[in-house]
TrEMBL record:
Belongs to the ABC transporter superfamily. It comes from Chitinophaga silvatica. InterPro entries: AAA+_ATPase, ABC_transporter-like_ATP-bd, P-loop_NTPase. The keyword Transmembrane does not apply. Signal peptide: none annotated. Coiled coil: none annotated. The lineage of its organism: Bacteria, Pseudomonadati, Bacteroidota, Chitinophagia, Chitinophagales. The keyword Oxidoreductase does not apply. Residues 6-235 form the ABC transporter domain. This is ABC transporter ATP-binding protein.
Length: 309
C-alpha cells in the first residue's frame, strides 16, 4: 500500500488462556477515516489498545510510520493520538489548561506548546471556550476537547474509540464533520458498532469478529454485500422451486413457508416484472411481491455470523 502509516502483521493476543485476537493483518494509509467495526467482545479494544501501545501483544508486529511499536515505543507513539471511549478529562481544568497538560504529556517541545494548543483549539472549534472549565462544557464540546487532546502533538495517526457515543443528533453531525476534517491530513481509525457512522464518515472498513478480520475493504465493497437484492413473493398455488429458479434473472430460491419464497435476483426491475407476469399467466395466485434490499444491519449480521468472508 502506498503511504502506509500503520502496518499490522500476524497480530495475536491472549488474555490468560483465551485468544482475544488471532492472526490479524492489515495496513492503513496515511489519510482518511477507517472504520473498525465489530460486535461486543469481537476484539476491537484489544486491537486498538495494542496499536496505541497501551497493551503489549502476545504475537506479531505493529509498525507506526515504519517504526516498530514494540521495539521503539516512545518514537512510535509520537505519531499516535488516542481518544478512549471514556475521556480522561480533568473536570476542574479549563480547556486550555487541559490541552497544555496533554501537550506536555505528549512531549511537545516546551517552546512549541502554546502554538500547538492554539492550533488544536482552533482546529476543533473550541478556542472560544478556552477559559471554560471542562465540567461546564456540553457533551459535544467535551468530545471536541477529547479530539483536540488526541491531535495536540500533531500525530500522523489518530485512534478514536466510539467518538459519537452519547451525543445528540446535532452534536453527532458536528463531531462527524470534525473527524472528517482532521482526517484530511492524517489517518483516523474510528471504532464503532454503528453502521450509519461508518457509512457517513469512513472511506474504508475493517471488521473484526471473534478476534479475526472478517472484512477489509472500501465502503463501496462493503455496500456490495447488500447485493444481491431479494424479492419476497407469496403464491397461493406455487410451482416447484425449480420452476421459479428458471425465470430469467432469478438466482436462488429460498422457501420461507409452503407459500412464501425469498428469491435472490439480479436487481433488474424487469426480473420482478417477469416474475409477476409468470405468476399471472401460470395462475400461481400472486398474493404478495416485495422487493427487499438488505439493510446494512443485515449485512453486519451476515458478516458477524461469518457466512461471508
Ligand atoms: N483484560 C482482559 N482479561 C481477559 N479477557 C479479556 C480482557 N479484555 C478483554 N477480554 C476478552 O477478550 C475478548 C475481546 O475483547 P475486546 O474488549 O477487545 O472486544 P471489543 O470488540 O472491544 O468489545 P466491546 O465493544 O464490548 O468493548 C472478549 O472475549 C473479552 O471478554
Amino acid at each position: 500500500m502506498e503511504n502506509t502509516i500503520v502496518k499490522v502483521e500476524n497480530l495475536s493476543h491472549r488474555y490468560a488462556s483465551q485468544w482475544a485476537v488471532r492472526d490479524i493483518n492489515f495496513e492503513i494509509s496515511s489519510q482518511g477515516v477507517v472504520g473498525l467495526l465489530g460486535s461486543n467482545g469481537a476484539g476491537k479494544s484489544t486491537t486498538m489498545n495494542i496499536i496505541c501501545g497501551v497493551l503489549k501483544q502476545s504475537k506479531g508486529e505493529v509498525y507506526i510510520n515504519g517504526i516498530n511499536l514494540k521495539d521503539n515505543p516512545v518514537e512510535a507513539k509520537r505519531n499516535i493520538g488516542f481518544m478512549p471511549q471514556k475521556l480522561p478529562l480533568y473536570q476542574d481544568f479549563t480547556v486550555e489548561e487541559y490541552l497544555t497538560y496533554c501537550a506536555d504529556l505528549r512531549m511537545v517541545e516546551k517552546k512549541q506548546v502554546k502554538k500547538a494548543v492554539q492550533e488544536a483549539l482552533e482546529r476543533c472549534g473550541v478556542a472560544h471556550f478556552r477559559d471554560r472549565l471542562l465540567r461546564n462544557l456540553s457533551g459535544g464540546y467535551q468530545q471536541r476537547v477529547g479530539i483536540a487532546q488526541a491531535i495536540v502533538h500533531n500525530p500522523k495517526f489518530v485512534v478514536l474509540d466510539e467518538p459519537t457515543n452519547g451525543l445528540d443528533p446535532n452534536q453527532i453531525v458536528e463531531v462527524r464533520n470534525l473527524i472528517k476534517q482532521i482526517a484530511v491530513d492524517r489517518a483516523v481509525l474510528l471504532s464503532t458498532h454503528i453502521l450509519t457512522e461508518v457509512q457517513a464518515a469512513c472511506r474504508e472498513i475493517k471488521m473484526i469478529e471473534e478476534g479475526q478480520m472478517v472484512f477489509s475493504g472500501s465502503i463501496e465493497m462493503f455496500n456490495n454485500y447488500i447485493e444481491p437484492n431479494t424479492i419476497v413473493v407469496t403464491l397461493d398455488s406455487p410451482p416447484l422451486n425449480e420452476v421459479l429458479q428458471q425465470i430469467e434473472g432469478i438466482r436462488s430460491v429460498e422457501q420461507l413457508t409452503p407459500y412464501r419464497f425469498r428469491l435472490g435476483y439480479d436487481g433488474e426491475k424487469k426480473t420482478a416484472q417477469r416474475l409477476a407476469n409468470a405468476s399471472v399467466s401460470n395462475e400461481w395466485g400472486l398474493m404478495e411481491l416485495m422487493i427487499e434490499k438488505s439493510s446494512l444491519d443485515a449485512v453486519f449480521a451476515r458478516l458477524s455470523k461469518k457466512q461471508i468472508k
